[in-house]
Amino acid sequence: MTFKEEIQQGIPQELPAIQAYDITINHAPKRKEILNEEEKKLALKNALRYFDAKHHTTLIPEFREELEKYGRIYMYRLRPTYKMYARPIEEYPGKSLQARSIMMMIQNNLDYAVAQHPHELITYGGNGAVFSNWAQYLLTMKYLSEMTDEQTLVMYSGHPMGLFPSHKNAPRVVVTNGMMIPNYSKPDDWEKFNALGVTQYGQMTAGSYMYIGPQGIVHGTTITVLNGFRKINKNPKGGLFVTSGLGGMSGAQPKAGTIAGCITVCAEVNPKITKIRHEQGWIHEVIENLSDLVERVKTAQKKQETISIAYLGNIVDVWEKFDEENLYIDLGSDQTSLHNPWAGGYYPVGISFEEANEMMANNPELFKEKVQETLRRHALAINKHTAKGTYFFDYGNAFLLEASRAGADVMAENGIDFRYPSYVQDIMGPMCFDYGFGPFRWVCASGKPEDLEKTDTIACAVLEEMINNSPEEIQQQMKDNIQWIKGAQQNKLVVGSQARILYADAEGRTKIAQAFNNAIRDGKIGPVVLGRDHHDVSGTDSPYRETSNIYDGSRFTADMAIHNVIGDSFRGATWVSIHNGGGVGWGEVINGGFGMLLDGTEEAQKRLKSMLFWDVNNGISRRSWARNDGAIFAIQRAMEAEPLLKVTLPNFVDKNLLN
What we know:
Catalyzes the conversion of urocanate to 4-imidazolone-5-propionate. This protein has helices at about 5-10, 35-50, 55-70, 95-110, 135-145, 185-195, 215-230, 250-260, 270-280, 290-305, 315-325, 355-360, 365-385, 400-405, 425-430, 450-465, 475-485, 505-520, 560-570, 600-625, 630-640, 655-659, and strands spanning about 120-125, 130, 150-155, 160-165, 175, 240-245, 265-270, 285, 305-310, 330, 390, 440-445, 500-505, 530, 540, 575-580, 590-600.
């Protein structure tokens, strides 16, 4: 069959041959055994729902083996044999251009160059899934190939519930992931219900089909590192940034450090992903010996080099060794997947990678003990460095949260707050999110590098025109983004689809999108998919990350994220998503996102103007009501520009009256 015929086939009537387990790619670790015998039978029944009864005798032992061996039923047999990548949009079958753009984005999320565990349908973060099994993928792609612009596909945590009649201005796909009843959002609940095949962890842009490889976080990390050095009044040149993790998201750190101009040391325990990042050029050198690492860093500091070094080993050893050697660290953080601490997100010190994976599956209680011991050592080593002047920030990966639960010394004197700030709380929130600046993304659906180059030029021209009339309060944000977009091509940031990201406010996003749509209309470029990271002004309610600089007590509420996705859905988004979990863990955050296809039409022009304005200003309004000065400035400016916008502003109380 041709590629199009395979897509249109969906789940084949006759079972394909079993494929060999490919040991050359990065696989998800075995999930711990959590189902009892009756629940295992239920998991099998749930999986077999996708298949004609004539196949059940064949599939039952096969799926049972997967459940026992890997802790999940992935249906490896159904994995497509065609190459998985984002093809040009015209290569997809279908009646709806919008639906074809979604197929392209789904395949990008599962591209081997993009996905962390592609055969387990996991894009990043250790458990951030696009689907739970391959039957869901096949059925979803079939539905999208059949969809018209008068239908909407409903996605229940990876399961395509079906196509429903709607209308051309409705979203083509509505996605939910992990939307549990609140009392069932503990980590083991995910393990259980995911093993049963009834829910999944979508992370942020994994389960919403908007991941663009590590470029997505390179930009945000670059801004974070630059602003981190600004906070300590130091030029990045010759400065040392120490962190850990080289996975789907964390792998961006060394690349961002290089763009910022500092020395980056990033520890990683997984040799496969370390090798991948080195081959991609995201890290310059790999060092496996601590003494060699110390000498290399000392040389780099002396010469004021801009260099990224991966240490193949545990980050705790690095912090402790650098303390012993009195090697000064300017900035410190951590981006291991501590939202997922017991299933491969964080590894114990003093145990090999292979031993840890075995312990994780076969002795989970001991593994948990070792992880918590490591967290206590990790925090202690960091504290020694911060006492010498190191600026440490939590990178929103639940490091401080899990360290506190392990009994580590990470609490402030009041016993309520953490002793170190979240990077959003201290850097991104007050400097970017409060002013409406967040991670705006676009993907050239033609798949042509020349189209991406043209969109870079268009976006840069828009920003350079805007900066001439921008108020002083946002001049630095504008300058950073112009510098970023000018260097985007030479930094070779594309992995997978022809995509780009920059931080822009509502005005910038709208003007850039309008310019793209005009260029599409005039035949200068092909269609463009707009999106953003959920890690944005309005998309995410996360008390220890995105909304950590909300101080009116509402940071534990999730009204903003829910309103965001509802508002996007009727203002013109091509698809919308809302997830439980993402970045900081299951039960710790609610986050949402969107995708929007620009096709050069007047309808697309109307949709982008309506939706992008809301998508940003919803969050600014919430932040202004929390009495954030930058957000009050930004929403007042937005109301001056748009007479139909009327937002309730807070009154301030004299602190002396409260005393």
